[in-house]
Amino acid sequence: MLTAAVLAQGVVFSVHSGLVLARADTRNLTREWLVANVPAGSRIVAEPVSPDEWARERRPGTSTGANGYRWRKYPGLLSRISPSGALLAHGFHVVSIENYERTLSPALIDYYESHGYCTVISGSTQSGRAFADPRQAPLAVAYYGELQRRGEAVFRASPYARGKGPVAFGFDWSFDYYPLAYRRPGPTMIVYRLHGGRCGR
Which end of the chain is least crowded, N or C, by CB within 10 Å? Predict the structure, then answer.
């Protein structure tokens, strides 16, 4: 009986994972929404939660930006934030994807608005890292709070079944979808619209 129960558990989770992976990824759902609602050539901020190809134009002959990009994407791995959280007076420095949270600060919201980056796409595989241990990334936690306060959430795509989740952050569970709360692959995706500065025009 015990052996049968253990085997049954494995079958349940294997079938569940297969069903989840067969459904549309939240990142693809988000991209479809952006294509329908954010004009090509617009400036956007997209956290590094998907391959760079995600922002490229997929139809031949219809790209509007440099290197075939559909939108003008903010360079998220170039940090313009000082250790205090203020914007650097000059230049920026390159960071790895593992240190992305250390590029974030509430001061960035003003920068986005003043430079016309009016659409901000956030994914829980990045924001979850900050909230998993807020003491390690206080400026990132403050950034997400400011983004929620000043941005209008215009689209959400959740990987969870109705009434389920969220699952506690963990990289493994963000990609293997072992918990039964998952219904589709991908992080929780939120698209924010900013309205200040050049975004209010």
Answer: N
Residue position matching structure tokens 């479809």: 32
Residue 101 identity (one-letter amino acid): E
Report the candidate in 81, 127, 124 with the shortest Cα–Cα distance to residue 101: 127
8 Å CB contact between 74 and 43: yes
Three-state SS sequence of the chain = CHHHHHHHHHHHHHHHHHHHHCCCCHHHHHHHHHHHHCCCCCEEEECCCCCHHHHECCCCCCCCCHHHECCEECCCCEECECCCCCECCCCCEECCHHHHHHHCCCHHHHHHHHHCCCEEEEEHHHHHHHHHCHHHCHHHHHHHHHHHHHCEEEEEECCECCCCCCCCCCHHHHHHCCCCCECCCCCCEEEEECCCHHHHC
Q: What is the pLDDT of residue 4?
A: 43
Residue type, 20: V
Q: State the pLDDT at residue 5.
A: 45
In sequence order, the 6+-apart residues with CB closer than 8 A to the CB of 180 are 13, 16, 164
Greatest mean pLDDT range, 3-12, 39-48, 74-83, 172-181: 39-48
Q: What is the mean pLDDT of residues 79-97?
A: 88
| Tokens linked to 169 | 């952050």
Contact between 181 and 165 (Cβ < 8 Å): yes
Question: 64, 57 in Cβ contact below 8 A?
Answer: yes
Cβ atoms within 10 Å, residue 107: 19
